[in-house]
Amino acid sequence: MQSHIVWDWNGTLLHDMEAVLGASNAAFATVGIGPMTLQEYREQYEIPIPRFYERLLGRMPTEAEWLALDGAFHDRYSELFPAAGLTEGALALLTGWRAAGRSQSLLSMYEHERLVPAVEGFGLAPEFLRVDGRTGASGGRKAVHLARHLAALDGQVDRRRTVLIGDAADDAEAALESGIHAVLYTGGSHSREKLAKVGVPVVDSLAEAVGIAERIAG
Length: 218
Fold this sequence. Notes:
By secondary structure, the protein is an alpha/beta fold. The chain is built from ten helices and eight strands. The strands form two sheets. The protein has a six-stranded parallel β-sheet with strand order 5-4-1-6-7-8, with helices on both faces. A two-stranded antiparallel sheet has the order 2-3. The mean pLDDT is 95. GO terms for molecular function: hydrolase activity. It holds the Pfam family Hydrolase_like.
């Protein structure tokens, strides 16, 4: 079987950190937390997301607070999303990887019903064997979703030759739990220091990530 990449979407293929930060600051306002800069956000952010809010509040949010935080985030993100674009070089990397006879898929914690039209809007759907977004409640870890994604690709990809490229420590942790490789990109939600703690390669561009994936997966 050919080498395979499982791509993350938000903060990886999609350069949307301005929208994420704006949406996060809108959410923070619902519980009296002041706005953050992008660097502050990257230093504080973690998954699962309720733990991120616990860090900021000094306690776990109540159910009502969580609903307000989550609702405010998604409402504001939807407003800011149209200004987001693909990360530099993403399209050429996707088409080049497929043209070389390799395969790729997309797995995101963005809601599936919103992810699919977003991917189609950028004309990227034909590049992927499979596109999966989050189903169920928001705010959780990626591991269970990755396990389902890989199970659906069973027989089409070799896990020993599969690399997940994402922007969050949770991406790499999920990959390792599923027995695949990971490369982490610094242009998204986490600081380099936080990504480096996971113990997988950390890069500053998607081109570097694909180069490492090519070496790892063959």
